[in-house]
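Example 9 (inverse folding). The structure is encoded as follows.
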């Protein structure tokens, strides 16, 4: 087991030694600053003021850093698909393309061990990215707007909740690991594609195509009766952490569905990878 963690440390070292690994972190930080600046436009603030005051709440109390942070996370979640797909699509395919994987497989280590280390690396990166998105948005938002009540507003999910700062902060922080769990579906699909005999760019593009198509089809009114078939219907369950009361049963069902889908993707990738010939 100690050898496994040594290999995991080496894989993480390789991942974070690549400059492209940090593209997601830099892009999200820049985007967060832009979104927060846009929220300072008087016309934008006026619409928020009307929304809050028409509901009987004080604008200055609930137009706070944590409220803006949640809106930033909402606006950047889809972009997270790109960077999780980029890293997970590279993790195997890039080493095959460079020829370094053949040298790895010459050593007395099973293919399953190699894939387990690489997939766990992708999982850790996914959670690190989700936490970075949420925490950096919270820090930047609080520095700009200060503390205050948490106004949760997501009309597409019919989510409208008000919290004081303390309970709101707990809910917000709890939603970040849930977001990471949701993003694992993108990670798992990209990992599966990376195990196939394709270029790293093709693995990333195939993943983005699959999930964007899933989002588009789920949004069409013709498929309303079967929207539970689409993965994106279940990945958005991380919003439910912010509902009051907490819909435990719905969240357990959604994450059980996603766990099954993720396990299927990974299993398919493992079967494909283990059947490939790297000798020639």
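The amino acid assigned to each position is listed next.
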């Amino acid at each position: 087991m100690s050898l496994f963690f040594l290999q995991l440390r080496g894989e993480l070292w390789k991942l974070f030694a690549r400059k492209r690994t940090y593209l997601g972190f830099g892009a999200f930080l820049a985007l967060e600053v832009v979104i927060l600046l846009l929220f300072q436009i008087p016309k934008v603030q006026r619409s928020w003021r009307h929304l809050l005051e028409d509901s009987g709440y004080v604008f200055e109390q609930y137009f706070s850093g944590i409220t803006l942070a949640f809106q930033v996370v909402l606006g950047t979640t889809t972009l997270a698909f790109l960077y999780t797909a980029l890293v997970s699509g590279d993790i195997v395919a890039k080493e095959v393309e460079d020829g370094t994987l053949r040298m790895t497989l010459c050593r007395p280590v099973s293919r399953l061990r190699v894939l387990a280390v690489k997939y766990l690396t992708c999982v850790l990166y996914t959670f690190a990215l989700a936490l970075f998105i949420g925490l950096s948005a919270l820090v930047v938002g609080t520095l700009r707007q200060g503390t205050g009540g948490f106004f949760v507003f997501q009309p597409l999910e019919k989510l409208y909740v008000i919290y004081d700062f303390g309970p709101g902060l707990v809910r917000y922080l709890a939603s970040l690991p849930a977001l990471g769990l949701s993003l694992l579906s993108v990670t798992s699909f990209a990992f599966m594609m990376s195990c196939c005999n394709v270029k790293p760019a093709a693995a990333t593009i195939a993943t983005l195509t699959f999930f964007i198509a899933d989002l588009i089809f789920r949004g069409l009114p013709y498929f309303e009766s079967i929207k539970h078939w689409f993965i994106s219907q279940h990945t958005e369950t991380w919003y439910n952490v912010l509902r009051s009361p907490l819909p435990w049963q719905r969240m357990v069902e959604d994450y059980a569905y996603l766990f099954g889908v993720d396990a299927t993707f990974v299993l398919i990738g493992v079967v494909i990878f283990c059947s490939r010939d790297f000798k020639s």
